[in-house]
From TrEMBL:
Naturally occurring in which organism (per UniProt): Gossypium anomalum
UniProt signal peptide: 1-24
Transmembrane segments: 298-320
Protein name: Protein kinase domain-containing protein
Higher taxonomy: Eukaryota, Viridiplantae, Streptophyta, Embryophyta, Tracheophyta
Top-rank taxon, per record: Eukaryota
Subcellular location: Membrane
Cross-referenced SUPFAM superfamilies: L domain-like, Protein kinase-like (PK-like)
Keywords attached to this entry: Leucine-rich repeat, Membrane, Receptor, Repeat, Signal, Transmembrane, Transmembrane helix
Presence of keyword Membrane: yes
A Pfam family of this chain: LRR_8
PROSITE patterns attached to this UniProt entry: LRR, PROTEIN_KINASE_DOM
Location of the Protein kinase domain: 478-756
Record's GO cellular component terms: membrane
Length: 756
């Protein structure tokens, strides 16, 4: 009887332990993702799979493995699958392994591969196009196999953060160009297969990697082979026009009598010889004496030539100095001093500090941060009843700029270069700040082979050029019922294309765009059009006709995060704790793309909940990316009133005229505080000590009891306390008053990723 009872207990325990895997409660987001995948693959005959609904985990769908209610593995190798992979693949919440190798899947590889993926196998299919630049986001990746497809173009320089990648196979494609510099960051890479492509250049970037298996056969690689690569146990290099000379390592000293062996392709190598038998030095016995005496004569001649050049240079310098002295003695000193007799201080822009890292603006033109900076806390996103923005310190702004409106594409940041003011001589008069014009910083290349444009015809535009007539048709002549909101750069309208697709049209105000020539405007469009990321609002097109300039964006039906948190009760209910963590991660990923994937880095300058849009699946789309230069197009006198940041979101350093990438991190921390507490960044209706969210919350983030009391009450306590504590810790680091104490955006992304 005892044995029977123990057996019953064991069976009961087994049922309890396996219950999460068999309850049939698959995460709805995973169900939606796998349904979308099934449809995009052409509804193949897979056991259990259906195009809508179902329970993949509970019903044991073919190739599907789960942990609790989440799909973690998809293994569908060699099943003769066709179709394509659509963007719905990015909706899997916790997938770790995806094996779709050796099928007939075509199209391009989606740009939104799930961030949790660790092993991705797409070998032996018919994928075409380029490798997505968003690879950099897959920081958990350990194996990536894209071999034997039809991929083309350059290998993207997107491997900076893939430090966990162990195996990479890109062989058997049509890849061109040189190896990207970010390959040097693959500190865990042991296997790299690049054979049977059209890759050119040299292998220097690979020499410090821990490789044990390297195959670069049948490419067009050239140049000397780094000696370290020859020590790789399995190094295959045939079928390349390599220089037979091995790239030498620097020795302790170079004997003066040794001659270099000429290279058949590139002539004498420029490096120093390597020690040991691998050296490329040639010293035949019969020629040693002749080489010695030939080099001796060369050294003597060279020394004599150098001495002659030095003497001639000294003589020439003395003559020039005498000439200048005589010329200057006939002039008075008016050119060196101003009217008061004081020497003019030269104003120069430092070339050692890139303008995109830290930007300085005149402190007087920046709205004071004390007691609030920028937009009124009553911003209502795209709500028709937009409240006027009020500044606490009204005297710091012109009267004409004290009333602004906000909407989902509000331009609150300004991209300003350090001014380089060169006064005319004579007399040396420095222009005032109001007279100086501000030039925008516009990257000429963003994460790809973009080209610097100097005119209309040289811009590389990957978006549609709309006509005024077509946009009038799509918006019903910009009718009031299609009006979304008004911002500093103009109004936003909803447009519907004949096929039913919705777009958002940004009609730029002439004040913002008149300072740019057509060529400059098209260059800005070219830059923005290259910003491609799943968490950034995509530019669909533009219009530049009859003095009108408009921007055409993808439309997000669920409005802004501000609306979801503070206005729309139905949307608020959808923001569960896990949904809020995913929103924070999406915003962080967008900022990481701007800061780290774009060269030069792009600072957003206006991160706030009203600029974070939500699509049908509550996925994040950050707006305003790359548009800050429009606010710096005119003179500072006209736009000085616009140099402000929204209430409660501004980093302290902006008060001193400085904006860095870490200022964006601060604003992200404020958005995360909104997600945590459900409060606005600034709320005038609350008691004085609670109006500014950061000031009120910062002292409570490390007190677990106070933290629990801070949480949005609409969550009804449905959240893991450990996750809550981690989230608060990230916020605390983001809103540090000193920029240097804030973490880099990549660290924030990793911390949030570990919470999912």
């Amino acid at each position: 009887m005892g044995f029977v009872s123990w057996g019953i207990v064991r069976v009961g325990l087994l049922l309890v332990l396996t219950l999460p895997f068999s309850t049939g409660d698959t995460d709805p987001r995973d169900v939606s993702a796998i349904n979308s995948l099934y449809t995009s693959l052409g509804s193949p005959p897979l056991l259990g799979w259906i195009p809508a609904g179902g329970d993949p985990c509970g019903e044991g769908w073919q190739g599907v493995s789960c942990v609790f209610s989440n799909i973690t593995e998809l293994r569908l190798s060699g099943l003769n699958l066709g179709g394509i992979l659509d963007e719905g693949i990015g909706d899997f919440e916790s997938i770790l392994i995806m094996d779709l190798s050796h099928n007939q899947i075509g199209g391009s590889i989606p740009s939104n591969i799930p961030l949790t993926i660790r092993n991705l196998f797409l070998s032996g299919n018919q994928f075409n196009g380029s490798i997505p630049v968003t690879l950099y986001a897959l920081t958990q990746l350990t194996q990536l196999f894209l071999d034997d497809n039809r991929l083309s173009d350059n290998i993207p320089d997107s491997f900076q953060e893939l430090r966990s990648l162990v195996d990479l196979d890109l062989s058997g494609n049509n890849l061109t160009g040189q190896l990207p510099p970010s390959f040097g960051n693959l500190s865990s890479l042991t296997t790299l297969h690049l054979q049977n492509n059209k890759i050119s250049g040299v292998l220097d970037v690979l020499q410090d990697l821990p490789l044990s298996d390297l195959n670069v056969e049948n490419n067009i690689l050239s140049g000397p082979i780094p000696p370290k690569l020859l020590n790789i146990p399995n190094f295959r290099k045939d079928g390349n026009p390599f220089n037979t000379t091995i790239l030498p390592s620097p020795p302790a000293a170079l004997p003066p009598f040794i001659a270099w062996a000429p290279s058949p392709l590139h002539g004498p190598p420029r490096g120093r010889p390597a020690d040991g038998p691998s050296s490329s030095l040639v010293l035949p016995q019969w020629s040693k004496g002749r080489v010695f005496w030939t080099n001796k004569r060369v050294i003597v001649i060279a020394a004599a030539g150098i001495i002659t050049l030095i003497v001639l240079g000294v003589v020439l310098l003395l003559v020039l100095r005498c000439f200048r002295g005589n010329k200057n003695s006939n002039k008075h000193g008016a050119n060196a001093y101003n009217s008061s007799g004081k020497k003019l201080n030269q104003v120069q822009k430092s070339s050692s500090q890139p303008a995109y890292q830290t930007e300085k603006v005149d402190k007087a033109t920046v709205t004071r941060l004390i007691d609030g900076y920028g937009l009124e806390s009553g911003d209502t996103g795209i709500s028709p009843n937009l409240q006027d923005e009020q500044l606490l310190d009204a005297n710091t702004r012109p009267a004409s700029s004290r009333h602004q409106k906000n909407h989902e594409i509000n331009k609150g940041g300004l991209d300003v270069k350090s001014l380089s003011i060169r006064p005319p001589l004579p007399p040396p008069l420095l222009p005032t700040v109001e007279e100086a014009s501000v030039s925008p910083i516009i990257p000429t290349e963003v994460n790809g082979p973009g080209r610097s444009s100097r005119g209309r015809d040289s811009c590389s535009l990957d978006v549609t050029a709309f006509t005024i007539a077509s946009l009038q048709q799509y918006t019903n002549s910009f009718a009031e019922e299609n009006f979304i909101g008004e911002g500093m750069l103009g109004g936003v309208y909803r447009a519907e294309l004949p096929d039913g697709k919705l777009l958002a049209i940004k009609k730029l105000d002439t004040r913002a765009s008149r300072w740019k020539t057509d060529a400059e405007f098209l260059q800005l469009i070219s830059t923005i059009s290259k910003l491609r990321h799943p968490n950034i609002v995509e530019l669909e097109g533009y219009c530049n006709e009859h003095g009108q300039r408009l921007l055409v964006y993808q439309y997000c039906r669920n409005g802004t995060l501000y609306d979801a948190l503070h206005i729309d009760d139905e949307m608020h209910k959808k923001l569960s704790w896990n949904a809020r963590v995913r929103v924070a991660l999406g915003v962080a990923r967008a900022i990481q793309y701007l800061h780290e994937a774009c060269q030069p880095p792009i600072m957003h300058k206006n991160i706030k909940s009203v600029n974070i849009l939500l699509d049908d699946k509550l996925a994040v789309r950050v707006s305003e990316c790359g548009l800050a230069p429009l606010l710096s197009s005119g003179s500072t006198s006209e736009f000085s009133g616009s140099l402000f940041v929204s209430y409660g979101y501004a980093a302290p350093e902006i008060e001193f005229g400085s904006y860095t990438c870490q200022s964006d991190v601060y604003s992200l921390g404020v958005v995360m505080l909104e997600l945590l507490t459900g409060r606005e960044s600034f709320d005038r209706s609350r008691p004085l000590g609670e109006q500014f969210l950061v000031r009120w919350a910062i002292q409570q983030l490390h007190d677990i009891d106070a933290l629990v009391r801070m949480v949005d009450i609409t969550l009804n306590g449905v959240y893991p306390v450990k996750s809550l504590s981690r989230f608060a810790d990230i916020i605390s680091r983001c809103v540090q008053s000193e920029p240097g104490f804030r973490p880099p955006i990549s660290e924030i992304v990793q911390d949030l990723l570990h919470m999912i």
